[in-house]
Amino acid sequence: MKITRIDEYVTAVPHIPSIEKSRPGDFRERPISIIEVHTDEGVVGLGEGGRGQRFAGAEEEWVGVDPLTVNLTTVGGAMGMALFDIVGKALGVPAHKLMGAKHWDAVPVGWWSPPLEAHEFAAMAEEGSRKGYKTHKLKARSHNIVETVRLMTEAAGPDYGIIVDPNFEFGSLANSLRLAEALEHYNIEAFEDPFQYLPGWQQYCDFRRHTRIPLAPHLGDPQKVMSAIRAEAADMFNLGGSVESVQ
């Protein structure tokens, strides 16, 4: 089997109006690249790149390569996805069999909001709940997060889960704990990156000792993930957009 060509499709899917209001044109400035990797045996693999990442120019190094000879653990991004897709199809097995055990039968998808005013968050929560979403991740800010969660809960009900992601804006451990205390009686599924990571994980451990709200660092480095697990500094992780529990 040999790779014969790679087709790239650059997609710019518009945001829904409630998101586009606060992120005008973002979808055009950071489009998503989708590639189709074709082989001489008719097996085609699909891969998706990150926002704003283009595949153009990388085709030459892959044409003529046999996907079955590639060390898949060394290839990431869109090409990595496409190669796992091709090899899995060629061997007649799901791609997860090439990686290890299957962890999910279905992947839960959450509703999402950029920074908004509290009443706008509530309107989006009502919309998300109406569409069948069970969890809502929001880009939180300390000045209105308590009011935001209150109004969201009133709009979508007490079972509607909320992931609070301030992108470090809560600033300090003390402020994060103050806000966590005010939010503990709501259905908060996680605080993601409330304050900056410091080597040693001590502040993350302190946060976990003083609140029942789960803590979810956003990490891309596997070594840091393992370091946090060993230090018992996290309840779950955001691994490139997917929030996963520590098991």
Secondary structure layout plus pairing:
Elements: E1 3-11, H1 17-20, H2 26-29, E2 32-39, E3 44-51, H3 77-91, E4 111-113, H4 118-130, E5 135-139, H5 145-156, E6 161-165, H6 173-183, E7 188-191, H7 202-210, H8 222-230, E8 236-238, E9 243-245
Parallel strand pairs: 4-5, 5-6, 6-7
Antiparallel strand pairs: 1-2, 2-3, 8-9
Helix pairs in contact: 4-5
Could you walk me through the main structural features you see in this protein, from its secondary elements to its overall organization?
This protein is α/β, with parallel strands linked by helices and 247 residues long. It has eight helices and nine strands. It has helices spanning 17-20, 26-29, 77-91, 118-130, 145-156, 173-183, 202-210, 222-230; strands at 3-11, 32-39, 44-51, 111-113, 135-139, 161-165, 188-191, 236-238, 243-245. A four-stranded parallel β-sheet has the order 4-5-6-7, with helices on one face. Helix 6 (173-183) links the parallel strand 6 (161-165) and strand 7 (188-191). The longest helix has 15 residues, at 77-91.
Instruction: Record the strand order, biggest sheet.
Output: 4-5-6-7
How many strands, which pairing sense, and closed or not: the largest β-sheet?
4 strands, parallel
Instruction: Estimate what percentage of residues fall within beta strands.
Output: 15-25%
**Radius of gyration computed on alpha carbons:** 21 Å
Distance between the termini: 38 Å
Q: Could you state the order of secondary-structure elements as H and E?
A: EHHEEHEHEHEHEHHEE
Give the total of beta strands: 9
How many individual helices?
Answer: 8
| Contiguous uncertain segments of 5+ residues | none
The helix-and-strand class reads: alpha/beta
Shape: globular
What's the overall average pLDDT, rounded? 89
Helix amount: 25-40%
